[in-house]
Amino acid sequence: MSKFLVICLVLVTFIADGSLGCKRFGSVTTTSSPDSTDQPGQPITVDLIIRNQFQKPYFEYQVTVSAKPQRELIHFLESAATKDPNFKFSADFYGSLGYMITAINGVRMNATEKSYWKIHENPSGNSIDLGVSSYVPLNTQTIILNFTTWG
């Protein structure tokens, strides 16, 4: 049976040592990571502001990721989790749609409550209409991950 015919949910958790841990539900076996075709660019610095003013526990803090190759935002989140042991996140992988952040520091998105982690650029506050697997930050850019609701 082709691996493309099997529906699989991939839960990604980033461990303190920076390694990628995956839990797979289903019988899919892959030989490479879902984003293994990415080619890193020049080293850049990105500031991440993590903000939850929607539900307890409320928090806001900043993590700076420096001198990392320019590539998709998910890689900067991995680096931030490695750098700051107080920053933990998880993401689900949805095939061609990529990763979706499901939790940061234990605050989980919830479809019933219509809550999720939204990505904004700072200082404009404009919403970034790409996910963490597609959006490539610019050098010295500040990205806000804001826990919010839709509707």
From TrEMBL:
Pfam families hit by this protein: DUF4430 (PF14478)
Domain Transcobalamin-like C-terminal: 92-148
Cross-referenced InterPro entries: Cobalamin_Transport, Transcobalamin-like_C
The UniProt record lists the keyword GTP-binding: no
Gene3D superfamilies in the record: 2.170.130.30
Superkingdom: Eukaryota
Signal peptide: 1-21
Keywords: Signal
Protein name from the UniProt record: Transcobalamin-like C-terminal domain-containing protein
